[in-house]
Amino acid sequence: MSIEEYADVTVVGAGLAGLVAARDVRRAGLSVIVVEARDRVGGRTWNRPMPGGWTIEAGGQYIGPTQDRLAALAEDVGVETFPTHHEGRTTWRGARVPETFELARPVLDELDRLAAQIPGEAPWRAERAGEWDAETLHTWLSRRVTEPTTMALLRLVFSAVLAAEAEELSLLHVLTYIRSAGSTSMLTDVAGGAQERRFSGGSHLLAIRLAERLSSPPGADGAGADGGGAVGGGGVRLDSPVRRIRHGRDGAVVEAAGRSITSRRVIVAVPVALGDRIGYEPGLPGRRQLHQRMATGVTIKIHCRYEEPFWRAAGRSGSALSPEEWVSAVFDDSPPDRGHGVLMGFVVADRARALARLPAGDRRSAVLGSLARYFGRQAMRPTHYAETDWSTEDWTHGCYGSNLPPGAWTRYGPALRESVGAIHWAGAETSAVWMNYMEGAVRSGERAAAEVVAAVAGVPGGAPGRPGGTTE
Amino acid sequence: MSIEEYADVTVVGAGLAGLVAARDVRRAGLSVIVVEARDRVGGRTWNRPMPGGWTIEAGGQYIGPTQDRLAALAEDVGVETFPTHHEGRTTWRGARVPETFELARPVLDELDRLAAQIPGEAPWRAERAGEWDAETLHTWLSRRVTEPTTMALLRLVFSAVLAAEAEELSLLHVLTYIRSAGSTSMLTDVAGGAQERRFSGGSHLLAIRLAERLSSPPGADGAGADGGGAVGGGGVRLDSPVRRIRHGRDGAVVEAAGRSITSRRVIVAVPVALGDRIGYEPGLPGRRQLHQRMATGVTIKIHCRYEEPFWRAAGRSGSALSPEEWVSAVFDDSPPDRGHGVLMGFVVADRARALARLPAGDRRSAVLGSLARYFGRQAMRPTHYAETDWSTEDWTHGCYGSNLPPGAWTRYGPALRESVGAIHWAGAETSAVWMNYMEGAVRSGERAAAEVVAAVAGVPGGAPGRPGGTTE
């Protein structure tokens, strides 16, 4: 019935975290098989081909300062970066937004100060962790801000960054998030922040090239040809959702659709909430409870293509922000080397939930109305229009990343990274640095691989050990 | 490879909700197949056989006033009830507990008053829903209670009832929960409350008898013989975890391990969080987000059997309560007609998480220490000892029921019950009355069956329609 395979290590999930983990495991001389539920690699990075012959970056796409492991990966696989277009004025909509930012600044500064008190690797050990985890961001903000437009702006900042509303978020989660990135401005800024640069050819190329290498013989690591769509052979088994992992101290059997893989260690590298779709034998009570609490954000990513980046002529950068619009945040997403212009925007949290309930025509009108109010009537007539609603993706559940409500970090925080028997955990959510970002994914893959290599090296028959590859 | 079957209706989950739904669907003249992941029916009701030849009720076990549909089911399948032993003094541990209850009373009364303002069928429509859903129970309590023992007692009440801590709970969730039961005292009381009576032979018999009937030919409904362990043939397919449901307006295909069932309607009757282990095509964004947010409680249920119910001779009822003990709440669980005595206790929420981290011997010592402080040294020497930790059960994830953190009821409340295309939802969590209780499960099954029967009757080829049963 099903194919039986063996590898030293099985990686569940062929997103950035899983593929980086597989790369490092293999570099340590161990054999590895990656299983992936989808028919493609890349997870939440995706060069999505659209009708009309254009491609959008439907998922994570930026790289910023301090995202060093992501930069190293890009260099490793030969993907270049270029700066996000940001020259010109930022466009605001709503009552006195720039002035309101000044009013909001002390609150953001206080959050930065509190965040700095958090031990990055163990937020639950912060001196005031219990207090911060007992309330929502909303109740905390409400004690500090009474002026409605300031509150609206602060809510906008966090909903745009976390894809969740202030009522849904533990204050400790928000502080942990800020801590993991460094500061609120690192999270929000283009120049000097998380949105500073983009990848030539799209961030998806990182995963595609990593997967191609896994298909090459071990040792040919640097020589993987860029085979385009031909990923998924060799080391990556696509269309293989994992149903169950039977595990113990010395090994595990991963049961996926159509195949069963025995290995010494397993790295589960999927969004935390997705980890709940797998059965574990024996059960993992702590981790299971974490899965149940960590919900993905809700984001609809919008792309509009125009004959040219018309906003630039008007002195606008293409960056826009408003607490009053369907599209909360907009960026210039034009290709660096071509004539046409692209505006990319995020509809998040409550606005995304409301937008998703509208029929397609009304959604488009709502989005284009927002863009027109930001940039003028020309924005109403894109040559191409695309929406990516990640909450409809069966193997993602939502984007950008995942968040914890009150009471969870202090109770289940350690379960985020602690291995259980032969099972190790990776994925952007599990990183103490740049949690939920591509940088976090890469770091988590590197960390999980190091754990596995150390564990296997420490036991008889350790690395480099059995002949690698499959026994298909 | 897999067996292909057809029925008018497929029910996912053979707990009380699913089996009641199947009964009602079949009574309406439609054919039905129930698929169940476990090797038994009953879900969170379970006559669990223990080493040493005794059986415990490991899950839900009580019936109280206003639980009318559960009472009707018991009568329907011929299961008797008897009163929970409650004569004698309640045992308190901790500083001035009875006096403290007087201090806590105004807070409980206020919660009852607020709960009464909630429209039971639509908590998200309460006038103050947004406000109540924006904060945790903890922050609300903290504004009202400063005296530490009063706070400890109030926290005990809600952790014992909801199996979660005040920091984890939306105030709106707590109010909705109180509203669904009627009042806080309905939730907490033995006499006149949710713990008033028990089922002769165990609550599990309800599910077992319902399943037996489904194995009989249609029409022989009242005549199902009590076949004991022989459930699971006929209408119930055991060991059949559902992987995927492909669905549309007019029907659905349920793909379970080893079988594929085509039907006009599907009733998913599993705990909400478990619904997330199924793939849906097309995706169900709103429901998926609800799944991710609704976490099961954490409970370890304890049973200690003694030669006799020795506490009764000391004038104690066997009911005990303490904010300071491992075992927060204890009840006399002795069989009505035999000489020996049984104490049943709940270790909940933070205490359960801490207890689960101890080795087995230490857990037992901790639990027996609690019982000894309640009832004296005799409690240290049970003839039989049992723990049931529901969070280790792969097809339950936790008990008693499920709870929502802040921000979820107002955003995803409607998704709890709203059918999507051919998929309908049942399960104790989905009931507006006695949510999370067996009564809620029964009501949800009846409601989902009525929805399905109305939907099928309303279309050409409606009920009673195609020849029922399987095409195995």
Automatic annotation (TrEMBL), chains A, B:
<dbReference type="Pfam" id="PF01593">
    <property type="entry name" value="Amino_oxidase"/>
</dbReference>
<protein>
    <submittedName>
        <fullName>FAD-dependent oxidoreductase</fullName>
    </submittedName>
</protein>
<dbReference type="InterPro" id="IPR050703">
    <property type="entry name" value="Flavin_MAO"/>
</dbReference>
<dbReference type="InterPro" id="IPR001613">
    <property type="entry name" value="Flavin_amine_oxidase"/>
</dbReference>
<comment type="similarity">
    <text>Belongs to the flavin monoamine oxidase family.</text>
</comment>
<dbReference type="InterPro" id="IPR036188">
    <property type="entry name" value="FAD/NAD-bd_sf"/>
</dbReference>
<feature type="domain" description="Amine oxidase">
    <location>
        <begin position="16"/>
        <end position="452"/>
    </location>
</feature>
<dbReference type="InterPro" id="IPR002937">
    <property type="entry name" value="Amino_oxidase"/>
</dbReference>
<keyword id="KW-0560">Oxidoreductase</keyword>
